[in-house]
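Hey, quick one: can you model this chain's 3D structure?
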Amino acid sequence: MKLTDISPAIALTPLDGRYHKQTADLVEYLSEPALNRERIHVEVEWMILLANGFDGNGNQPIVEGVQPFTEAEIAFLRAIPEQFGAEGIAAHAAHEAVTHHDVKAVEYYIDDQIDKAAAVLGPDTQLNERIKTLVHFACTSEDINNLSTALCVKQAMEQVWLPAFRAIVDHLAAKAEEYRDMPLLSLTHGQPATPTTLGKELAVYVYRLNRQLKHLESQEYLGKINGATGTFGAHLAALPEVDWIAVSREFVANRMGLTWNPLTTQIESHDWQAELYSTVSHANRIMHNLCVDVWMYISRGVFAQVPVKGATGSSTMPHKVNPIRFENAEANFELSCSLLDTLSATLVESRWQRDLTDSTTQRNIGSALGYSLLALNNLLGGLNSIHPNAAVMEHELDANWEVLGEPIQTAMRACELKGLPGMDKPYEKVKELMRGHEISRQDVERFIDGLAFDDETAARLKALTPATYTGVAGTLVDLDR
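Sure thing. Here's the predicted structure for all 481 residues.
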């Protein structure tokens, strides 16, 4: 048995196979049928604008000789993309098998549906053989493609990716607040350093991710409809009295809900896509950093994992609970970034007025966001399965009294500036005591007592412990947004 002979066809990529359930929501917006459905939508709405004019009531049709569509005819046309399902997908594929052109196949598919209009609306409907001329009127394929792609990506981001991303940010924000005052030993260069709080460290990620979220929420999605090389040449040749620039702006901005791009070649220049994918890639990398940090916190014992009943951590070591969700997220963020970076780099280039490299490249947008969505799902699952191990955190802090060298030597500097004796070379004196030695609370107190601190400063320093030396970390959590 050859696997290629099995029906239905076996998925080649894990996004459509092993991970299908986790990424299926993107199929609604970034699959090939989703793109074709959006193409049909754009074509139909263009017809309606040309027939019924700006005000939508048919008083000023844009194309002379076309009667305004009735409400019933408009509803019929709009139902074509709305009802585009398995049968429609097959019919479109049949046309494309002949035309070898996906947008031309869309045009013929709409023609097929118009043939059915008389049976629904009656023999007097304008939706007949003659009106087929209005389908794709004065359009180049890229007029339809760029708008359809923008709508698909916009909806995928707003309906699927951004909600999953916000769920990560919201979870981290809630945990940052919950753990705002929970002391944590810092490690800089992997060595014990000034303590912080777990909440403050999570708030750092909240702040970083919120910056990217703001960029994404203000992201523009551009579109154009201006002909074969962006000059409205065919439009003016056919109907020179029409203000085609105004028509284009109306259609893109008001009918499609996109940002109108007035200056293009045959293609919309894709700069907005490069900006979007670059920002998503940046957000991916921040979350990748989070995955690595949490993985190491788990390894260190700062976070404990909640075992999943029945799950196997190792085929040979029964005790293991592996941080696989974070590892899965880490790997899929990397795959997503590689695709997004390629999209960002290549889509902004086109040979003169048009080449076709962008066409096949854009078919990978779903994969790029799919790997990121898979990573988001795994990251959230991982975050929901961990909790702080207070005993480990307390032990780490109590075992590293040398981290109080920083506040002591800084206080010595302040006292030296005030003229107190014996406070010279504070860094060097503390370094001699602290560096390379195991230090206890008693060692710290003896050192403080051996210096001529004023009583208030000495008391303040002696009251410090590694667990209380966290500055205003808890207060900083309030600034994470």
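One thing worth noting: The longest strand covers residues 191-197.
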